[in-house]
Amino acid sequence: MRLTDEAARALAARAVSMTAADEAEAYVTSNDAALTRFAGNRIHQNVAEEDTTVSVRAVIGQRTGVAGTNRLDDAALLACCEAAVAAARVAPADDGFPGLPEPAVVEYADRVCPATRAFDAEARARAAASIIEQSSSRGLSAAGTVGRSDYTVAIANSRGVDAAMGVTSLKATVLSSGTDGGNGWASWLGCDASAFAPAALGDEAATIAERSANPGSLDAGVYAVVLAPEAVSDLLDFLGYLGFGAQAVDEKSSFIAGHIGEKLLSERITLTENALGTETVGLTFDFEGSPKRRVPLVEAGVVRGPVTDSYWAAKLGVPNTGHALPAPNPYGPLPLNLELAAGDTRVDEMIAGVKRGLYVTRFHYVNVEDPVRVVLTGMTRDGTFMIEDGRLTKPVKNVRFTQSVVDALNDVEAVGDRRALIGPEEGGANLTPALLIAKWAVTGQTR
Amino acid sequence: MKRLVSVALDAAALAGASYADARVTLTSEERISVRTGRVEAVERSESLGIGVRVIANGAWGFASTSTLTDDAIAVCARQAVAIARASAITAAAPVRLAPVGVFNDTWRGPCEVDPFTVPLEEKLALLVAADEGLRTQDVVTVTNASLGFVRVDKVFGSSEGSMIEQSYTESSAGIVAYALGDGEVLPRSYPNSHGGQAVQGGWEAILALDLVGNAPRVAEEAAALVSAMPCPSTQTTVIIDGSQIALQVHESIGHPTELDRVLGDEAAFAGTSFVKLEDLDTLAYGSKHVSVVSDATVRGSLGSFGYDDEGVPAQRDYIIREGLFTGFQSSRESAPAVGRTSNGCARADGWNRIPLVRMTTLSLEPGAWSFDDLIADTDEGIYLETNNSWSIDDRRLNFQFACEIGWEIKGGKLGRMIKNPNYTGITPKFWGSCDAVCSADHWRVWGIPNCGNGEPMQVAHVAHGGTPARFRDVQVGVGR
Question: Tens digit of pLDDT for each residue in B185-223?
Fold first, then answer.
C-alpha cells in the first residue's frame, strides 16, 4: 500500500536518524501503480504493483556511499543504513563534494486527484473498451495502454531537509492499425482522470489510421517538416538530456558550452524548465529535497541555463536550480519538465505554408549519433504524410531521419498555438506545441 | 520463499483463478563507478517481493507487492483475480497455454568467487587504476570505469504443481575514454560500449578482463580518433566485429522473431515485426552463411537459466538455419499460434513484472574464416568495431547503427582509422548480403544488460554470441 506523505516523511527521517555518519540523506518512494494494456482489440496484459523503497546516502567527510532496500523492518533498514556508511568509509574522497544541501522553501503543488486514485481495474477496462470501440467499429485494430500512477516521494537529510509530496496521474495511449498499412496514434496525460475522454482519444487515432492507409514511397532528401507535439517532445527530451545539464556543460559535450548568452536557435524558440507549471505533472522538489526553480533555457533563440543540483552548483559557482536525480547519479542534473513557448500559428496554417514537405505524428527509436550537435537518428511512425502545395496529400511509409536538433531549431519557421503534455507519467513531462521546420534531413525509408 | 509462493497460489485458487503462478524474487545489486578521477557511485541495493499471475474468466490478471506477510500476499492474489475479471470485459477467446511438464527443481548459475564478498576497497582500487590508465592522453577529457554485480534468488510455483528455485550471479565491467575534438566527443570503450561486458559469473570474470592493462591502449585509440578521417558516404563492403554483430543480431533478428511481437502484443510501444506467422520455414532471412540459434543453456551467459519465468525448461532452438527462418522465440501463451510448445523465452524483470517473450542467448553461429584471411580476401571496404548508437523501425526493417571506430580496408589490408562510422540497411537484404562469417576462434558471447521492452518498462539481461562477419553493398556514412 502506498504510504501517505506523513508516513513517507517519517520513514525518511527514521532512516536518517539510523545512519551513523557525518551527514545522511534518505529518499523514500512509495508507489501504487496499475496499467491495463490492450492489443488486437482486447485487453491482453493487466498489472498492478505496490512497493516502497528507501535509499540512504551516507557522508563521511567528503566520502559518500549509497544503499537502498524495499525491506522496511528495523533490521533490514538498519542493515541498509550500515551498508551506506560502509561504502562511504572506503570511497575515495571527492574534493568537490560540498556537503548535503541546506533546507530551502519548496513551492508545493496539489497534484493528487481523488478521481485518478479511484481509477481502478474496472474503470481502466471500460476506458480501454471505449478506445477499442473507435477502432473495431471501423475495421481497425487498437493497441495501447490506460495506466494510473499514484506515488509519494519524501526526502530528508541531517541538515533539516524535509520534503514530501504525492502525485497522481493517468496516461493513455492508442495505436490504431488497419490491414492496408495505415496507422494512427494519440495519447493523453494528466493529473485528473475525470478530464480523460477515452472515446475521443480512440477516435483521434482511428481517424489518422484511416487517413494513412496505403502509404507510398519517398526519396531521401531535405524537406520542410511539420512535427506534431509528440514528435517535438522527443527532440526536447534529447536536447534537455544532452544540452542543458550542468555536467554536460562542464564536460564540454553540450552545444551550449562556451556559448551561453549567444543566439544559437531561432528567435521563435523559447524553452523553459518549469516543474511549477499548472499544466505539468511530477514533483516540485528534486531528489535532494531542494526546490525546483523555473529555469530559462532558451530565450528567443539565446541559450541560457544550465540546470544544476547542489554538487554542480557548488562546482560551477552558480545557484542550485533543484534538478538533482537520485544519488548516485552518473548523468548530473537534468531538466524533466520542459515547456516550449507556444506561437500563434495553427497546424493547418503551417501545412498551408509548405510547398513540398512532410507531416510527422511521432518518432520511433530515436538515438544519438553526435551529442554535441545533438545529431539524432530515428524513424517516423503512426501517421507520416506528404504535404504538397499547402495540403496534406498522401501518406508515406515511415522514413528515417539523421538530423541535428540544434540546426533544426535554428530553422523553425512557425510555432503552434496549442500545446500538449507529452511524456512519462512519472518524473515529469514536456509541454510543447507543433513546429514547422524548414530543413529536415530524410536519410532513408522502410519497406 | 516456497511457503510464500504456496500462500499466493492457495489464495488465487480460492478466489477463482483457473490458473495461477507466483514468483518471489530477491535481487541484490552493487554498482561502483569512477568518472574522471572522481568516485561517481558506490551503491548497494536490494529488492524483494512477490508477483502473482492468474487466469480468471479466461483473461489475465497480475498483482505484485513488496509486503510479504501472509495477509498481504492473499490480498495481492485476490487483486490479481479481480484484475483478470476486469480484463475479461474486452477479452475475446480465452487465454490458452501450451502444455509444460511439472518440475520440482533447483538451478544455480556459475560463480567461482562471489563478488559480493570481495572487499569494496579492492574493487575501488581496480577502478581507480583503470581510470588513471585512461587519463594518459591530453585530448581525453572524460573517463569512466565501472563495475556492476547482480545476484538473483527466486522461486517460481504454479497451480499445475511446479516449484522451481533458481539463483545466479552476474558481473559486469567496462572502461571508456572520451576524447574532445573540434566540436565533437569521441568515445572509445573496452571490452564493449554501454557498460562493458556482462556475464553470469563472479569476480574471476572481472579479473579476466584486465581493465587496467587495456586502459592505455583505449586512451590512445580515443586520442587517435580526433585526427582520424571521417566516414565516407558510400556503398561498400563492411566487416563488422563480434560485439557489433551481437547488437545487429539483437535488433534485426532477436526482436523481430519474438512471437508475442509478431502477434501484435507490443504494437503500441516497441512495435510489430516484418516477420509473419506464415513465414515459418519459408522466409529467406539471410544468406546460407547465416545460422542463428536461441540457447538458454550456454554456461556463463547473461541469457541462461534452468527454467524461464513460466517454468519452461531452458532450450536450444534454431531461429535461422543456413538462411531459412525456422523458429520463433515463444512463451506458453504465444506458442500455440504456430502449433508448437514454448521454447522457453518468457522472462520477467523482477517480482513486479510479468514474463514477456525475451531473448536468451541468441547467437550467430561461427563460420570457417580466420579474421586475417577475411581482411586479406577483401579488396575494399570498412572494418567496424564497437557500437556507439542504434536505431531501427517499428517493424524491424530499416536500421542504422553507428560504431566507435573503423578502419579502411584497401587491397586486403587494414588502413587508415575512421571516426564516427555508421551504416544502414534493410534487415533481410542486409543478412542476405552476408558472404563470410569468422570461425569459432573469434566467437564470443556478449552480454547485453539493457534490453528494454514492455509496459511498464522491463529491462532484460540477454546475450548474443558473435564473431566478425562480412556484408556486401552496405550504405555507410549516412548524414556525413
Answer: 999 999 999 999 999 999 999 999 999 999 999 999 999
Q: Nearest Cβ partner of A369 from B59, B389, B392?
A: B389
Q: Which amino acid is at A425?
A: E
User: What is d(CA A238, CA A363) in angstroms, rounded to the nearest whole number?
Assistant: 13
Beta carbons of A372 and B184 less than 8 Å apart = yes
Name every chain B residue with its beta carbon within 8 A of the beta carbon of A175.
Answer: 267-268
Q: Is the peptide bond before B191 cis (omega within 30 degrees of 0)?
A: yes
**Complex ipTM, two decimals?**
0.96
HSE, CB side, 13 Å, CA atoms: give it for residue A88: 28
Does residue A258 contact residue A240 with C-beta atoms inside 8 Å? Answer: no
- Chain A residues whose CB is inside 8 A of the B274 CB are 447
Please tell me the total number of residues recorded for chain A in this structure.
447
Phi then psi for B248, rounded to 5 degrees? -60, -45
3-state DSSP assignment of residue B224: helix
Asked if B89 lies within 8 A of A129 by C-beta distance, the reply is yes
Contacts of A37 in chain B (CB under 8 A): 268, 455
Give the gap in angstroms from C-alpha A343 to the nearest C-alpha of chain B. Answer: 30
Which amino acid is residue B435, in one-letter code?
A: D
Which residues have a Cβ under 8 Å from the Cβ of B326 and sit 6 or more positions away?
B280, B281, B318, B319, B320
Residue B308 in grid coordinates: 524461464
Interface test with A, best of B394, B423, B458 (most A CBs within 10 A): B394
Give the end-to-end CA distance of chain B in Å, rounded to a whole number: 56
Q: Which bin fits A13, alpha (ψ -120 to 50), beta or left (φ > 0)?
A: alpha
Digit-coded pLDDT (tens) for B72-128: 999 999 999 999 999 999 867 999 999 999 999 999 999 999 999 999 999 999 999
How is residue A76 written as a grid cell?
533490514
How large is the angle between the packed helices A198-211 and A121-136, nearest 10 degrees? 30
Question: pTM of the full predicted structure?
Answer: 0.97
CA proximity to B425, closest of B271, B236, B192: B236
Residue appearing with cell numbers 544544476: A308
Interface test with B, best of A27, A264, A365, A404 (most B CBs within 10 A): A365
A303 contacts A406 by C-beta, under 8 angstroms: no
3-state DSSP of B33-74: EEECCEEEEEEEEEEEEEEEEEEECCEEEEEEECCCCHHHHH
